[in-house]
Amino acid sequence: MLNQPAVKRSDIVYKHMRDPALLRYYYKVKTVSAINEFAMEGSSPADIFVGRFGYPYVHIGPLIPPEFGDTSILGTPERWHGKTIEDIVNFRSKLVRGMYLTKVQDVEKGKMQEQVRDLALAEKSTDAEMSFAKKPFIKLELRDEVQPFGPSAQMKYFNVYNMRADQKMEYLYQDTDAKAATAVLELYQKGTNVSKIQRGLAAGLFGLKKNRKFVPTRWSITAVDDTISKNNREKVKEYDSVDAIYAYYHVALDNRWLILFIPGNWQYESIEAFYPGTVWNEDGKHVSIFGSYEGYHGRSTYAEMGGCYYSGRLATTEKLLNLKKQAVVLILREAHEGYSMPVGVWNVREYVRETLTTQPVVLYDTNQMFSFIESKMQLKRNTWIGNSRVLKELLVQKRLSEFVN
Fold it and tell me: What is the secondary structure of 65-120 as a DSSP string?
Protein backbone atom coordinates (compact mmCIF):
# COMPACT_ATOMS: atom_id res chain seq x y z
CA MET A 1 0.00 0.00 0.00
CA LEU A 2 1.29 3.46 -0.84
CA ASN A 3 2.04 5.88 1.96
CA GLN A 4 -0.49 8.70 1.70
CA PRO A 5 0.60 12.29 2.38
CA ALA A 6 -1.17 14.34 5.01
CA VAL A 7 -2.30 16.94 2.47
CA LYS A 8 -2.28 17.05 -1.32
CA ARG A 9 -4.20 18.62 -4.17
CA SER A 10 -6.94 15.98 -4.14
CA ASP A 11 -7.77 16.78 -0.49
CA ILE A 12 -9.29 20.07 -1.67
CA VAL A 13 -13.08 19.82 -1.45
CA TYR A 14 -15.14 21.46 -4.16
CA LYS A 15 -18.07 22.78 -2.15
CA HIS A 16 -19.47 25.69 -4.11
CA MET A 17 -22.49 25.21 -6.32
CA ARG A 18 -22.52 28.00 -8.85
CA ASP A 19 -22.12 25.63 -11.79
CA PRO A 20 -25.33 24.32 -13.39
CA ALA A 21 -24.02 20.74 -13.33
CA LEU A 22 -23.65 20.87 -9.57
CA LEU A 23 -27.09 22.42 -9.19
CA ARG A 24 -28.59 19.62 -11.25
CA TYR A 25 -26.68 17.11 -9.12
CA TYR A 26 -27.98 18.61 -5.89
CA TYR A 27 -31.54 18.82 -7.20
CA LYS A 28 -31.52 15.24 -8.41
CA VAL A 29 -30.19 13.63 -5.24
CA LYS A 30 -32.47 15.79 -3.09
CA THR A 31 -35.56 14.62 -4.97
CA VAL A 32 -35.00 10.91 -5.54
CA SER A 33 -38.66 10.13 -5.04
CA ALA A 34 -38.30 6.34 -5.12
CA ILE A 35 -36.44 6.27 -1.80
CA ASN A 36 -38.57 5.53 1.23
CA GLU A 37 -37.42 7.55 4.24
CA PHE A 38 -36.07 4.52 6.09
CA ALA A 39 -35.65 1.73 3.52
CA MET A 40 -34.93 1.09 -0.14
CA GLU A 41 -34.21 -1.70 -2.57
CA GLY A 42 -32.74 -1.93 -6.05
CA SER A 43 -30.08 -3.52 -8.22
CA SER A 44 -26.59 -2.46 -7.20
CA PRO A 45 -23.98 -2.28 -9.99
CA ALA A 46 -21.97 -4.46 -7.57
CA ASP A 47 -20.44 -1.24 -6.25
CA ILE A 48 -19.32 -0.46 -2.71
CA PHE A 49 -17.67 2.41 -0.88
CA VAL A 50 -15.19 2.28 2.00
CA GLY A 51 -14.53 5.56 3.78
CA ARG A 52 -11.25 6.67 5.32
CA PHE A 53 -12.18 9.15 8.05
CA GLY A 54 -11.57 7.73 11.52
CA TYR A 55 -9.26 5.01 10.19
CA PRO A 56 -8.90 2.20 11.35
CA TYR A 57 -12.63 2.55 12.13
CA VAL A 58 -14.31 3.33 8.82
CA HIS A 59 -17.73 3.25 7.21
CA ILE A 60 -18.31 0.46 4.71
CA GLY A 61 -21.38 -0.18 2.63
CA PRO A 62 -23.09 -0.65 -0.73
CA LEU A 63 -24.04 1.82 -3.45
CA ILE A 64 -27.60 1.04 -4.56
CA PRO A 65 -29.99 2.89 -6.92
CA PRO A 66 -33.77 2.78 -6.37
CA GLU A 67 -34.25 0.78 -9.58
CA PHE A 68 -33.93 -2.81 -10.77
CA GLY A 69 -32.29 -4.38 -13.79
CA ASP A 70 -28.89 -4.06 -15.38
CA THR A 71 -27.38 -1.06 -13.59
CA SER A 72 -23.77 -2.04 -14.29
CA ILE A 73 -23.00 1.15 -16.23
CA LEU A 74 -23.47 3.15 -13.01
CA GLY A 75 -20.35 1.52 -11.55
CA THR A 76 -18.19 0.87 -14.60
CA PRO A 77 -16.06 3.88 -15.58
CA GLU A 78 -14.57 1.87 -18.44
CA ARG A 79 -17.97 2.32 -20.16
CA TRP A 80 -18.16 6.09 -19.73
CA HIS A 81 -16.18 7.08 -22.81
CA GLY A 82 -18.06 9.73 -24.73
CA LYS A 83 -20.34 10.59 -21.81
CA THR A 84 -20.67 14.18 -20.64
CA ILE A 85 -20.14 15.35 -17.08
CA GLU A 86 -23.90 15.72 -16.83
CA ASP A 87 -24.32 12.07 -17.93
CA ILE A 88 -21.88 10.92 -15.29
CA VAL A 89 -23.55 13.02 -12.60
CA ASN A 90 -26.92 11.55 -13.56
CA PHE A 91 -25.48 8.02 -13.35
CA ARG A 92 -23.85 8.48 -10.01
CA SER A 93 -26.49 10.61 -8.30
CA LYS A 94 -28.84 7.63 -8.42
CA LEU A 95 -26.61 5.67 -6.07
CA VAL A 96 -27.50 5.76 -2.38
CA ARG A 97 -24.61 4.96 -0.06
CA GLY A 98 -25.29 2.75 2.94
CA MET A 99 -22.89 3.25 5.86
CA TYR A 100 -21.84 0.79 8.55
CA LEU A 101 -19.02 1.49 11.00
CA THR A 102 -16.44 -1.27 11.38
CA LYS A 103 -12.79 -1.79 12.17
CA VAL A 104 -10.84 -2.44 8.98
CA GLN A 105 -9.39 -5.68 10.37
CA ASP A 106 -12.89 -7.09 10.98
CA VAL A 107 -13.31 -8.04 7.35
CA GLU A 108 -14.39 -11.59 8.20
CA LYS A 109 -16.65 -10.68 11.11
CA GLY A 110 -20.35 -9.95 11.07
CA LYS A 111 -23.28 -10.04 8.68
CA MET A 112 -22.77 -6.53 7.29
CA GLN A 113 -19.13 -7.21 6.45
CA GLU A 114 -20.10 -10.47 4.73
CA GLN A 115 -22.74 -8.75 2.59
CA VAL A 116 -20.32 -6.03 1.48
CA ARG A 117 -17.80 -8.74 0.49
CA ASP A 118 -20.49 -10.61 -1.43
CA LEU A 119 -21.45 -7.48 -3.35
CA ALA A 120 -17.82 -6.84 -4.34
CA LEU A 121 -17.57 -10.46 -5.51
CA ALA A 122 -20.68 -10.24 -7.70
CA GLU A 123 -20.33 -10.90 -11.41
CA LYS A 124 -23.04 -8.45 -12.44
CA SER A 125 -25.77 -6.17 -11.10
CA THR A 126 -27.16 -7.67 -7.92
CA ASP A 127 -30.45 -7.11 -6.12
CA ALA A 128 -30.14 -5.70 -2.63
CA GLU A 129 -32.15 -4.03 0.10
CA MET A 130 -31.26 -1.90 3.07
CA SER A 131 -32.92 -0.01 5.87
CA PHE A 132 -31.67 3.15 7.53
CA ALA A 133 -31.40 4.54 11.02
CA LYS A 134 -32.23 7.96 9.55
CA LYS A 135 -33.38 9.36 6.23
CA PRO A 136 -30.56 9.48 3.64
CA PHE A 137 -28.79 12.85 3.70
CA ILE A 138 -26.94 14.87 1.11
CA LYS A 139 -23.35 15.89 1.74
CA LEU A 140 -21.86 17.56 -1.29
CA GLU A 141 -18.16 16.87 -0.85
CA LEU A 142 -16.78 15.95 -4.25
CA ARG A 143 -13.24 14.67 -4.59
CA ASP A 144 -11.16 13.80 -7.61
CA GLU A 145 -10.02 10.35 -6.49
CA VAL A 146 -13.49 8.79 -6.39
CA GLN A 147 -16.63 9.01 -8.47
CA PRO A 148 -19.49 11.08 -6.98
CA PHE A 149 -22.57 9.38 -5.55
CA GLY A 150 -25.93 10.39 -4.15
CA PRO A 151 -27.38 10.52 -0.62
CA SER A 152 -25.86 8.61 2.31
CA ALA A 153 -27.38 7.00 5.39
CA GLN A 154 -26.37 4.87 8.36
CA MET A 155 -27.62 1.31 7.75
CA LYS A 156 -29.59 -0.79 10.19
CA TYR A 157 -29.97 -3.70 7.79
CA PHE A 158 -28.43 -4.74 4.47
CA ASN A 159 -28.95 -7.86 2.40
CA VAL A 160 -27.79 -9.03 -1.02
CA TYR A 161 -29.79 -11.67 -2.85
CA ASN A 162 -29.69 -13.48 -6.21
CA MET A 163 -25.93 -12.92 -6.24
CA ARG A 164 -23.66 -14.92 -8.54
CA ALA A 165 -19.96 -14.57 -7.87
CA ASP A 166 -17.40 -13.67 -10.51
CA GLN A 167 -15.38 -16.90 -10.76
CA LYS A 168 -12.03 -15.15 -11.25
CA MET A 169 -12.62 -12.92 -8.24
CA GLU A 170 -13.90 -15.80 -6.13
CA TYR A 171 -10.84 -17.92 -6.95
CA LEU A 172 -8.50 -15.22 -5.64
CA TYR A 173 -10.75 -14.62 -2.64
CA GLN A 174 -10.46 -18.27 -1.71
CA ASP A 175 -6.69 -18.29 -2.22
CA THR A 176 -5.64 -17.08 1.20
CA ASP A 177 -1.95 -17.82 0.48
CA ALA A 178 -1.65 -15.33 -2.39
CA LYS A 179 -0.51 -11.79 -1.64
CA ALA A 180 -2.82 -8.92 -2.56
CA ALA A 181 -0.45 -7.69 -5.29
CA THR A 182 -0.42 -11.18 -6.82
CA ALA A 183 -4.22 -11.24 -6.91
CA VAL A 184 -4.41 -7.76 -8.45
CA LEU A 185 -1.96 -8.62 -11.23
CA GLU A 186 -3.53 -12.00 -11.97
CA LEU A 187 -7.00 -10.49 -12.33
CA TYR A 188 -5.67 -7.68 -14.53
CA GLN A 189 -3.84 -10.15 -16.78
CA LYS A 190 -7.06 -12.13 -17.14
CA GLY A 191 -8.90 -9.06 -18.37
CA THR A 192 -10.84 -8.00 -15.27
CA ASN A 193 -11.73 -4.31 -15.31
CA VAL A 194 -9.41 -2.19 -13.20
CA SER A 195 -12.43 -0.63 -11.46
CA LYS A 196 -13.64 -4.07 -10.39
CA ILE A 197 -10.22 -5.02 -9.02
CA GLN A 198 -10.17 -1.77 -7.06
CA ARG A 199 -13.51 -2.63 -5.45
CA GLY A 200 -12.25 -6.10 -4.59
CA LEU A 201 -9.21 -4.68 -2.83
CA ALA A 202 -11.39 -2.17 -0.95
CA ALA A 203 -13.63 -5.01 0.23
CA GLY A 204 -10.70 -6.98 1.65
CA LEU A 205 -11.06 -9.86 -0.81
CA PHE A 206 -7.35 -10.32 -1.50
CA GLY A 207 -4.14 -11.04 0.33
CA LEU A 208 -2.81 -13.42 2.94
CA LYS A 209 -5.61 -14.44 5.29
CA LYS A 210 -4.01 -12.84 8.34
CA ASN A 211 -3.47 -9.54 6.49
CA ARG A 212 -6.88 -9.04 4.92
CA LYS A 213 -8.72 -5.84 5.77
CA PHE A 214 -11.02 -3.22 4.32
CA VAL A 215 -9.14 -0.58 2.36
CA PRO A 216 -10.57 2.95 1.93
CA THR A 217 -11.81 3.33 -1.63
CA ARG A 218 -9.51 6.28 -2.35
CA TRP A 219 -6.49 4.23 -1.32
CA SER A 220 -7.56 1.07 -3.14
CA ILE A 221 -7.93 2.98 -6.42
CA THR A 222 -4.40 4.34 -6.26
CA ALA A 223 -2.91 1.10 -4.90
CA VAL A 224 -4.25 -0.92 -7.84
CA ASP A 225 -3.16 1.66 -10.43
CA ASP A 226 0.28 1.77 -8.81
CA THR A 227 0.69 -2.00 -8.56
CA ILE A 228 -0.30 -2.69 -12.16
CA SER A 229 1.67 0.19 -13.64
CA LYS A 230 4.84 -0.74 -11.73
CA ASN A 231 4.62 -4.25 -13.12
CA ASN A 232 4.00 -2.92 -16.63
CA ARG A 233 6.89 -0.47 -16.29
CA GLU A 234 9.44 -3.19 -15.55
CA LYS A 235 8.31 -5.11 -18.64
CA VAL A 236 8.53 -1.94 -20.76
CA LYS A 237 12.18 -1.51 -19.76
CA GLU A 238 13.04 -4.73 -21.62
CA TYR A 239 12.22 -3.14 -24.99
CA ASP A 240 14.18 -0.79 -27.27
CA SER A 241 13.35 2.90 -27.25
CA VAL A 242 10.93 4.53 -29.66
CA ASP A 243 12.80 5.93 -32.68
CA ALA A 244 11.04 9.31 -32.92
CA ILE A 245 8.74 11.52 -30.90
CA TYR A 246 5.18 10.20 -31.00
CA ALA A 247 2.60 12.85 -30.10
CA TYR A 248 -0.97 11.85 -29.27
CA TYR A 249 -3.68 14.50 -28.86
CA HIS A 250 -7.32 14.29 -27.79
CA VAL A 251 -10.04 16.45 -26.17
CA ALA A 252 -12.59 15.05 -23.71
CA LEU A 253 -14.70 16.65 -20.94
CA ASP A 254 -13.11 19.98 -21.95
CA ASN A 255 -9.70 18.56 -21.09
CA ARG A 256 -6.93 18.78 -23.67
CA TRP A 257 -4.63 15.77 -23.52
CA LEU A 258 -1.24 15.75 -25.23
CA ILE A 259 0.91 12.67 -24.61
CA LEU A 260 4.48 12.45 -25.84
CA PHE A 261 6.60 9.31 -26.22
CA ILE A 262 10.16 10.61 -26.56
CA PRO A 263 13.27 8.52 -27.42
CA GLY A 264 15.21 7.37 -24.37
CA ASN A 265 15.10 5.05 -21.39
CA TRP A 266 12.02 5.07 -19.20
CA GLN A 267 11.10 8.31 -17.48
CA TYR A 268 7.60 9.48 -16.70
CA GLU A 269 6.13 12.86 -15.94
CA SER A 270 2.55 14.08 -15.75
CA ILE A 271 1.59 17.77 -15.61
CA GLU A 272 -1.92 19.15 -15.14
CA ALA A 273 -2.89 22.78 -15.77
CA PHE A 274 -6.24 23.86 -14.32
CA TYR A 275 -7.72 27.04 -15.73
CA PRO A 276 -9.75 29.51 -13.61
CA GLY A 277 -13.30 28.25 -13.18
CA THR A 278 -12.30 24.56 -13.09
CA VAL A 279 -12.57 22.23 -10.14
CA TRP A 280 -9.20 22.91 -8.49
CA ASN A 281 -9.04 26.56 -9.47
CA GLU A 282 -12.59 27.81 -9.12
CA ASP A 283 -11.85 31.36 -7.93
CA GLY A 284 -8.31 31.70 -9.25
CA LYS A 285 -7.10 34.39 -11.62
CA HIS A 286 -4.20 32.37 -12.99
CA VAL A 287 -3.68 28.83 -14.23
CA SER A 288 -2.82 26.35 -11.44
CA ILE A 289 -0.24 23.75 -12.44
CA PHE A 290 0.57 20.47 -10.68
CA GLY A 291 3.09 17.86 -11.74
CA SER A 292 5.05 14.79 -10.64
CA TYR A 293 8.03 12.93 -12.12
CA GLU A 294 9.95 9.69 -11.86
CA GLY A 295 13.21 8.51 -13.38
CA TYR A 296 14.26 5.10 -14.60
CA HIS A 297 14.01 3.49 -11.16
CA GLY A 298 10.66 5.01 -10.24
CA ARG A 299 9.98 7.03 -7.11
CA SER A 300 9.87 6.19 -3.40
CA THR A 301 7.43 8.90 -2.27
CA TYR A 302 3.77 9.43 -3.04
CA ALA A 303 3.23 11.64 -6.09
CA GLU A 304 2.58 15.28 -5.31
CA MET A 305 -0.32 15.44 -7.76
CA GLY A 306 -2.12 12.49 -6.21
CA GLY A 307 -3.81 9.46 -7.72
CA CYS A 308 -4.02 10.87 -11.26
CA TYR A 309 -0.28 10.28 -11.58
CA TYR A 310 -0.64 6.51 -11.16
CA SER A 311 -3.68 6.12 -13.39
CA GLY A 312 -1.84 7.97 -16.17
CA ARG A 313 1.21 5.77 -15.68
CA LEU A 314 -0.97 2.68 -15.98
CA ALA A 315 -2.48 3.79 -19.28
CA THR A 316 0.83 4.85 -20.85
CA THR A 317 2.64 1.64 -19.86
CA GLU A 318 -0.21 -0.36 -21.39
CA LYS A 319 0.35 1.42 -24.70
CA LEU A 320 4.13 0.93 -24.58
CA LEU A 321 3.68 -2.78 -23.90
CA ASN A 322 1.41 -2.94 -26.93
CA LEU A 323 4.06 -1.16 -29.02
CA LYS A 324 6.86 -3.27 -27.48
CA LYS A 325 8.82 -0.06 -26.87
CA GLN A 326 10.07 2.03 -23.99
CA ALA A 327 10.21 5.83 -23.92
CA VAL A 328 10.40 9.01 -21.94
CA VAL A 329 6.70 9.63 -21.33
CA LEU A 330 5.23 13.09 -20.83
CA ILE A 331 1.52 13.75 -20.22
CA LEU A 332 0.37 17.35 -20.65
CA ARG A 333 -3.20 18.08 -19.56
CA GLU A 334 -5.11 21.34 -19.74
CA ALA A 335 -8.44 21.39 -17.90
CA HIS A 336 -10.67 24.19 -19.17
CA GLU A 337 -13.89 25.67 -17.80
CA GLY A 338 -16.11 22.86 -19.03
CA TYR A 339 -14.44 20.56 -16.51
CA SER A 340 -16.75 21.93 -13.85
CA MET A 341 -16.67 19.20 -11.20
CA PRO A 342 -14.44 16.29 -10.25
CA VAL A 343 -15.74 12.97 -11.54
CA GLY A 344 -13.03 10.63 -10.26
CA VAL A 345 -9.47 9.66 -11.04
CA TRP A 346 -10.78 7.07 -13.49
CA ASN A 347 -11.11 9.85 -16.07
CA VAL A 348 -7.32 10.17 -16.30
CA ARG A 349 -6.83 6.44 -16.85
CA GLU A 350 -9.66 6.14 -19.36
CA TYR A 351 -9.00 9.33 -21.32
CA VAL A 352 -5.26 8.72 -21.50
CA ARG A 353 -6.15 5.27 -22.82
CA GLU A 354 -8.51 6.87 -25.33
CA THR A 355 -5.94 9.49 -26.37
CA LEU A 356 -3.43 6.72 -27.05
CA THR A 357 -5.84 5.06 -29.51
CA THR A 358 -5.61 8.08 -31.81
CA GLN A 359 -3.18 8.27 -34.71
CA PRO A 360 0.05 9.84 -33.43
CA VAL A 361 1.91 12.66 -35.12
CA VAL A 362 5.55 11.65 -35.64
CA LEU A 363 8.10 14.37 -34.88
CA TYR A 364 11.86 14.34 -35.31
CA ASP A 365 13.33 17.18 -33.25
CA THR A 366 12.57 19.41 -30.30
CA ASN A 367 11.60 22.38 -32.48
CA GLN A 368 8.89 20.31 -34.15
CA MET A 369 7.79 19.04 -30.73
CA PHE A 370 7.41 22.50 -29.19
CA SER A 371 5.64 23.80 -32.29
CA PHE A 372 3.19 20.93 -32.03
CA ILE A 373 2.61 21.58 -28.31
CA GLU A 374 1.85 25.23 -28.99
CA SER A 375 -0.49 24.34 -31.87
CA LYS A 376 -2.63 22.15 -29.61
CA MET A 377 -2.34 23.60 -26.11
CA GLN A 378 -3.21 27.06 -24.89
CA LEU A 379 -0.19 27.42 -22.60
CA LYS A 380 3.04 28.44 -24.29
CA ARG A 381 6.22 26.38 -24.39
CA ASN A 382 8.03 28.40 -21.71
CA THR A 383 5.26 27.67 -19.19
CA TRP A 384 5.46 23.94 -19.89
CA ILE A 385 9.27 24.00 -19.77
CA GLY A 386 9.20 25.90 -16.47
CA ASN A 387 7.07 23.16 -14.90
CA SER A 388 8.63 20.10 -16.54
CA ARG A 389 11.79 18.27 -15.60
CA VAL A 390 11.62 16.20 -18.79
CA LEU A 391 11.48 19.25 -21.06
CA LYS A 392 14.24 21.05 -19.18
CA GLU A 393 16.52 18.01 -19.53
CA LEU A 394 15.76 17.75 -23.25
CA LEU A 395 16.94 21.30 -23.78
CA VAL A 396 20.33 20.69 -22.16
CA GLN A 397 20.91 17.43 -24.03
CA LYS A 398 22.03 17.11 -27.63
CA ARG A 399 19.49 18.12 -30.20
CA LEU A 400 17.10 15.24 -30.54
CA SER A 401 17.70 15.16 -34.29
CA GLU A 402 21.30 14.08 -33.64
CA PHE A 403 20.27 10.75 -32.18
CA VAL A 404 16.94 10.07 -33.90
CA ASN A 405 17.01 8.19 -37.17
Answer: -S--S--GGGG-GGG-TT--HHHHHHHHHTPEEEEEEEETT-TTSSHHHHHHHHHH
